[in-house]
Amino acid sequence: MVGKRSDSTKEYWQSIYSSKSAQEVGWFQAQHEVSIEFINNSEIAKDARILDVGSGATTLLDDLLKEGYSNIMAMDISASALAVSKQRLADLITWKVADITHPLDIEENSIDLWHDRAVLHFFTSNMEKQGYLENLKKVVKGGGFVLIETFSPEGAPQCSGLDLQRYNEEMLERFLGSDFELILFKRHIHSTPSGGERPYVSTLFRRRE
Ligand SMILES: C[S@@+](CC[C@H](N)C(=O)[O-])C[C@H]1O[C@@H](n2cnc3c(N)ncnc32)[C@H](O)[C@@H]1O
Hints:
The protein is of the alpha/beta class and about 210 residues long. The chain is about 30% helix and about 30% strand.
């Protein structure tokens, strides 16, 4: 399914999570050090509303709970992915199955921190990118934060068999627009479970009041 974008996105991701364990997928990380460092750096309150988009079966949720964050929503297009985390964390997290490129039924200006690790880079069409951005702008409040981590330009052009749009910090700045100020960025290498190296960039933006 190289570069294909269609209604089959959901089935595609469902099949990935049904065929591999959460620890086998290339993006598995036991600890999300950079995200936690950036989130702590934002100094949001421990009960601030955090939305993790394309959450998959991430252990970021466990890391956030350990840090004391208590108001977390995990959303993903794949119910199978969320079911893995849900088994561990049940009612400690709010769960939502939805497509982030389509209008999201989350209240306007209700999110203090939007977290996206390895999701935006899968959206290669203008329609998908615009849908994502419209949701982000609708739900992130003024003064709120946006943390986006994507494959950097040195990274592989594909992940999980799909074409990617790779970004650096300037490209993410242009994507979000002048309402968002870049506060922090870090280039780093993710080691995959099979020993590969994936160059990523993590960015933290603050939405102007
Ligand atoms: C590479 S995985 C990253 C998962 C997680 N953020 C992590 O770091 O472990 C990409 C995730 O994005 C989800 N995804 C892909 N397209 C999506 C969409 N249109 N809306 C919501 N989630 C989507 C997939 O189901 C998958 O869980």
